[in-house]
Amino acid sequence: MDAVLNIGIAIKELKTMKNHEAIAEACKKINKLERKSDDIYNKNIEELFESEQDVKNIIKY
Length: 61
Prior knowledge:
By secondary structure, the chain is mostly helical.
């Protein structure tokens, strides 16, 4: 939800291009949240391949 709110802030500020600091701050927060979600995804994929013995279940995901 935080990413959506920050995207909304960035888009609103991009319309006027007057508050560069707010745009940069929103982009930094979005980037941080994206990196965090990528880390979670990669960890779960790693765990799936390490623990799952049935190839069918790996293919499902």
